[in-house]
Design brief:
heterodimer, A: 113 residues, mainly beta, 7-stranded mixed β-sheet, 4-stranded antiparallel β-sheet, globular, B: 111 residues, 5-stranded antiparallel β-sheet, 0% helix
Chain lengths: 113, 111
Amino acid sequence: EAQVTQNPRYLITVTGKKLTVTCSQNMNHEYMSWYRQDPGLGLRQIYYSMNVEVTDKGDVPEGYKVSRKEKRNFPLILESPSPNQTSLYFCASSDRPNTGELFFGEGSRLTVL
Amino acid sequence: GENVEQHPSTLSVQEGDSAVIKCTYSDSASNYFPWYKQELGKRPQLIIDIRSNVGEKKDQRIAVTLNKTAKHFSLHITETQPEDSAVYFCAANQAGTALIFGKGTTLSVSS
């Protein structure tokens, strides 16, 4: 089954404790992206990757890092989480990022205390 | 860069009525305009899309129209049903970064 898998789905952590949200896709897509969803603000892009070892900032990259060492994986790293990073995070992938469907993961709800 | 405005932010209709959600975009180079539906607690999923060489596209009860001159596109849902209740996002493509999303419209269909 074609899918985008994120882990963890839910996480409560404390300020400053490094965490990683993993994302894996099995569709051999070159493009992957991370979004955060906040009430009234819609889906805002954090980082994206056009291919292995190619990453770039989206609209809200501050406080986040990513890496793309393999085509299937695109982890989101919060080196020192802060309460304003409490949000719902979605990973997505596509084989045609500008003209085709984005496949989203199930989402990861992160709370930073 | 691209900017996508979406209206209204909330929309309440009676079952059987029509619903219309409108979006405007800023980048005249944008040529792909998808709509995503997000049910409560679920991931966004593509429901329909339109490309700039087409003015209208239909899929059963949903349709999308595009006016390139005015830079706006709309989602039309006819004969709404309770299962249409969800958050709807419009988007437009931008070179290099894929999709820019609107802020979403929460549609409530009451029976």
